[in-house]
Specification:
alpha/beta, TIM Barrel, 5-stranded parallel β-sheet, 3-stranded parallel β-sheet
Length: about 425
């Protein structure tokens, strides 16, 4: 996991996609005329898909150069641009209810086009990109077909779990039997489920207050997904299923696991009488779980830590050194780019090299199928040095624009103080 005197770095939280018209060649021919009509009047809502920075999403050579200059040798690629027939990025649009069968078919075709584009894009940097697979879950059998097709095309980043909040047209409870074929397929194919920040919660409207509460409630919805998968018995029924929570922070995990363990223990011993910590007698649910919630986490869950902060690295023993994976969030405004080496030094100061190596690359390689041997030569050229990472960095010595990244929260004047995630991909400007 450590290359000579340099670390191998894999970012498990990067974003990309084709330019709007770039998806045309990846659509089924029956949708081309409809796509041309749609594209002719569609106005791109995001500034970072326009101008000179837009090409970071789809220019393979530029992207490789940017990431190498940032010390990163490989990446997991989440969506960023607007796929055909969507109004906004698919991370946001996936939460909206599908109004009819025609709309469902169009959206599915748009996500299929993205998956095909992503397979080609990954092939341009073989062994250095793993793109996540996008699906619509409203037709579970069709979703399974799309997952299989994407894996056959070479995508190995796992499945991006679409949001299923109330009003989405999907069963809002991930422990519902409806989702069983999804979990079974991921286990069979050996790919993880990826839950990305903001993908679980509902959008309640377009008022400024709606945006504010969406951001404030974001982590609650992500944590709800974890509760559903553990206490709802999904991880019990599918013990080989792997689940990743990306761009949700790290610090909340020990407290939530402790809370779930307490509920689990109390429910098992409760008599249902008033005055007990938990008066719910959960024999028909809790007694079906063979492990405590924290044990399911250790067996099957991971966190894509954008943006890892020293206060969170200090909790690595509680979360699990083998469960934390580092991410830069390139190419978003609040990404650690172009200061990822400094962000790594800030987060991993004083951390033993073998533990840092696991969190920077080893865990991601195991989960997403990267070959550390194949990445080693690139790391020898560009990776951050082991000694400089262990020595840390004084954030006050960094340029002021580094403060845009929450990785330096509280350590620089004007640095971001929260880890709420990236507003632009959810439709805010």
């Amino acid at each position: 996991m450590v290359s000579a005197d340099r670390h191998i770095v894999i970012s498990v939280d990067c974003h990309g996609g084709a330019p709007l018209t770039g998806y045309r060649d990846y659509l089924e021919s029956s949708y081309l005329e409809e796509f041309d009509r749609w594209a002719a009047t569609y106005e791109i809502p995001y500034e970072d898909m326009k101008g000179e920075d837009g090409s970071r999403n789809w220019d393979s050579d530029r992207r490789l150069k940017d990431l190498e200059n940032d010390g990163i040798v490989a990446e997991v690629l989440y969506p960023n641009t607007v796929p055909p027939f969507f109004s906004t990025s698919s991370l946001a649009s996936g939460q909206a209810a599908v109004r009819n069968t025609e709309e469902l078919c169009r959206r599915r075709a748009g996500l299929q086009a993205h998956n095909r584009w992503a397979a080609d894009f990954c092939s341009m940097a073989k062994g250095r990109r793993a793109a996540v697979i996008q699906v619509m879950l409203h037709d579970i059998d069709a979703a399974i077909d799309d997952i299989r097709a994407a894996v056959d095309s070479g995508l190995r980043g796992g499945v991006l779990l679409p949001g299923a909040p109330p009003g989405s047209g999907l069963p809002p409870l991930y422990y519902h039997d409806y989702y069983g074929p999804l979990w079974e397929t991921c286990v069979e194919l050996g790919i993880p489920i990826n839950c990305h920040s903001g993908g679980s919660g509902p959008r309640t409207g377009d008022r400024p207050e709606d945006d504010m509460f969406f951001l404030m409630d974001m982590k609650w919805w992500d944590q709800r997904t974890l509760r559903h998968l553990i206490l709802g018995g999904v991880l019990e029924r599918y013990p080989e299923l792997k689940v990743v929570f990306t761009e949700v922070g790290v610090g909340w995990i020990p407290a939530l696991l402790k809370s779930m363990d307490r509920f689990f223990d109390s429910a098992r011993t409760s008599t249902g009488l008033a005055g007990e910590d938990v008066t719910y007698r959960g024999s028909h649910v809790i007694d079906q779980l063979s492990l405590r919630p924290s044990e399911y986490w250790q067996r099957q869950c991971y966190v894509g830590a954008s943006f890892l902060h020293p206060s969170e690295t200090a909790k690595r023993g509680l979360v699990g050194v083998d469960k934390i994976m580092w991410g830069s969030d390139y190419p978003h405004v609040e990404a650690s780019f172009p200061y990822s080496k400094e962000a790594i030094r800030f987060a991993f100061a004083g951390v033993p090299a073998d533990e840092a190596a696991s969190m920077l690359a080893g865990n991601a390689a195991d989960l997403y199928g990267f070959s550390l041997d194949e990445l080693r030569s690139a790391a020898e050229r560009i990776g951050p040095g082991r000694e400089e990472v262990a020595a840390g960095v004084d954030p006050s010595t960094l340029p002021p624009d580094a403060a845009k990244c929450p990785a330096f929260a509280g350590a620089m004047p004007g640095a971001a103080l929260t880890q709420m995630g990236d507003n632009r991909k959810f439709g805010e400007q």
